[in-house]
Amino acid sequence: MQYLLLSAVAICCIVHLDSYALQAPTSDGLDADRLYYVTGRKTSLYRDIERTKPYVRLAFREPVTFLSLEGSAVRVRTMDGATGYVKEDEVSNIWILVSKRRKLVTLHRGLEVVSEFRADFGYNAYSDKEILGTEGNPDHWRTPEGAFYVVRKNPYSQFHRAFLLNYPNAEDAARGLRDGLINQHQFDTIMQSERRGIAPPMGTPLGGMIEIHGHGTGLSSNWTQGCVAVRDEDMDFMWTYVKEGTPVVIEK
Question: Which of 161, 200, 159, 156 shows the shortest CA–CA distance to 182?
Answer without folding.
Answer: 200
